[in-house]
Design brief:
The protein is an alpha/beta fold. It has 2 domains: 162 residues, Rossmann fold (3-Layer(aba) Sandwich); 112 residues, Rossmann fold (3-Layer(aba) Sandwich), CATH 3.40.50. The chain contains 14 helices and 10 strands. It is globular and about 50 Å long. The two termini are 28 Å apart.
C-alpha cells in the first residue's frame, strides 16, 4: 500500500518542447486532482530530425529532471521519444511509464471500421514506423498509411491555426491519405490536436481523428488505478512547468497549448540535465 505522501506526489510529463502541454491539458481534464510536473526541453527542440542515439541520451536526461521532483509516474508526451527511446525511460524511471504511441495505436484500431488507418507525425516518428508496428501488433490486417508533416509544428507555434496557408499545406500533406480512403487518422504529434478543425475540414469530417495525448491520458488513469496510485485529494491539482530555455513567448504560446494560463515557468540548465542523466544511470 502506498503512503498518502506518495499518492500526492506529482505525475511527471516531459516533451522535447512546448507541444506536450496538450497532453498535460488532457491529463488535467481527466485527472483534475492529480499534481503534475512538466519539463519541456526547449533548448534542444526539435527532437524529430535528430539521430536515435542522441534522442536516447536526451530521454535519459529528461527523465532525470522529473525524478528529481519525486514523481510517481512518468508520461513521455514526446512521440519521437516514445517511438525510439521508451525503453531508456523505463530503465531509468523506477516508476510506471506511459508513452503516447501504444495508447494511440490501441484507440485507432478500436475506432477504425474499414481497417484503413492514417498516421501523421514528425519525420522522426514516421521514420521509426512505431505506430505502424504497434497497429499491426494489434491487428495485422489493418492498412496503415503514414505521412510526415514537418511544417505543422512551426505553423501551430506561430499561431496560424486557422490561416488559409495552413489549410493549403494541410491539403497537400493529407492528399495521399485521402487517396487511400482512410477512415481513422492518428495525430501523432503533440502539436497536431490544435489543427483538429483544419484537418477535419480537409477530410470533410469523414475521418475519426485520434489524439494520442488523450489516449495516453486514458492509459495514465488506468495505470493509476491498477497501481493504487490515485491521489485521494479532492482539491484541484497543482501544475509546475520547467524548461531548458525560457523564451519571451513561451508563456503566450504555452497558454494556447495548455488551454489555461501557464503561471510561473522555471528554468533548468542544460548542464544540469547531463548531471541528472548520470545520476540515474
Amino acid at each position: 500500500m502506498q503512503s498518502t505522501q506518495n499518492l500526492s506526489n506529482p505525475i511527471g510529463v516531459f516533451d522535447s518542447g512546448i507541444g506536450g502541454l496538450t497532453v498535460v491539458r488532457a491529463l488535467r481534464r481527466q485527472l483534475p486532482h492529480e499534481n503534475i510536473v512538466y519539463f519541456g526541453d526547449t533548448a534542444r527542440v526539435p527532437y524529430g530530425p535528430k539521430s536515435p542515439q542522441v534522442i536516447r541520451e536526451y530521454a535519459a536526461e529528461d527523465t532525470g529532471v522529473l525524478l528529481e521532483k519525486n514523481v510517481k509516474m512518468v508520461v513521455v508526451a514526446c512521440n519521437t521519444v516514445s517511438s525510439v527511446a521508451l525503453d531508456v525511460v523505463m530503465k531509468h524511471a523506477r516508476v510506471p511509464v506511459v508513452g503516447v504511441i501504444v495508447p494511440g495505436a490501441k484507440t485507432a484500431v478500436g475506432a477504425s471500421k474499414t481497417k484503413r488507418i492514417g498516421v501523421i507525425g514528425t519525420a522522426g516518428t514516421i521514420a521509426s514506423n512505431a505506430y505502424t508496428y504497434h497497429i499491426h501488433q494489434l491487428d495485422p490486417d489493418v492498412t496503415v498509411t503514414a505521412k510526415s508533416c514537418p511544417l505543422f509544428v512551426p505553423l501551430v507555434e506561430e499561431g496560424w491555426i486557422d490561416h488559409p496557408a495552413t489549410e493549403l499545406i494541410a491539403r497537400e500533406y493529407l492528399f495521399p491519405l485521402k487517396r487511400e480512403r482512410i477512415d481513422t487518422l492518428v495525430l501523432g504529434c503533440t502539436h497536431y490536436p490544435l489543427l483538429r478543425a483544419t484537418i477535419g475540414r480537409v477530410f470533410e469530417d469523414a475521418v475519426t481523428l485520434i489524439d494520442s495525448g488523450e489516449s495516453a491520458a486514458d492509459e495514465v488513469a488506468l495505470t493509476l488505478d491498477r497501481e493504487g496510485l490515485r491521489n485521494p485529494s479532492t482539491m484541484a491539482g497543482n501544475f509546475e512547468c520547467y524548461v531548458s530555455d525560457l523564451s519571451s513567448k513561451f508563456s503566450e504560446v504555452g497558454t494556447r497549448f495548455l488551454g489555461e494560463p501557464m503561471g510561473k515557468v522555471r528554468y533548468v540548465s542544460p548542464v544540469d540535465l547531463v548531471q541528472k542523466s548520470v545520476a540515474v544511470r
